[in-house]
Amino acid sequence: MLNQSVSQQVTHPSPIGNVLPTGFSSWNLPSQYVAEKSDDAVLERVFDDDAVEWSEQDVVYLHWRLLMEVDQLADATAPLDEKFDILRWVFTEPEKDDKPFSFVSCLRVVGCSPLSPVPYCGFVDAEEVRDRIWHSLKTWFPASLERYPDWVGYAVIHNPQWIEARLAKNPQWINEQIKRMSVTGDLFT
Q: Which residues lie closer than 8 Å to 124 by C-beta, 6 or more apart?
């Protein structure tokens, strides 16, 4: 028999801030670090013609910045090709987990480094974070697909590799197809 004291309320996937460990979110970054290490300043140094000398703190910051890209999964307006790239990075093959700048490596560096821009949280279980992201995708992807025609949602859900391959070749592929269909009309309607 069912236990009636247990709430039957459905829990919805959490926003990205709750998927990554506490303190990993960009909005928890101390203001002096944001001013000191804004993305523009770091990018300006990276793309400067002179040789770039990376400090250990810069490398740790880059690991943290890569983790913040996971926020785009929850953003319904983020491009699908970028979401596929992020998912490929997060759910890569286990033999790549120990490579520099892998998802697991970024969690380890940001969680354990004393130079991390977030408070120390220690070892972070990558599989637990991946499970939380996977669970949250059930809400994030339908919200992203609402702004596209039905055929895009159907293709993403039923044949994501096909869509990903086209977006990898041309990130504007979906937009071009939508525009073409609006001009020529759908042959099947």
A: 21, 107, 108, 110, 111
Model confidence over 42-80: pLDDT tens digits?
666 656 666 678 889 999 999 999 999 999 999 999 998
Query: Would you say the C-alpha torsion 83, 86, 90, 94 has a positive or negative sign?
Result: positive
The DSSP letter of residue 52 is P
Say which amino acid occupies 2: L
Q: How far apart are CA 142 and CA 109, in angstroms?
A: 32
pTM of the model: 0.70
d(CA 128, CA 74): 18
pLDDT tens track for 162-189: 988 998 899 899 889 888 888 876 655 5
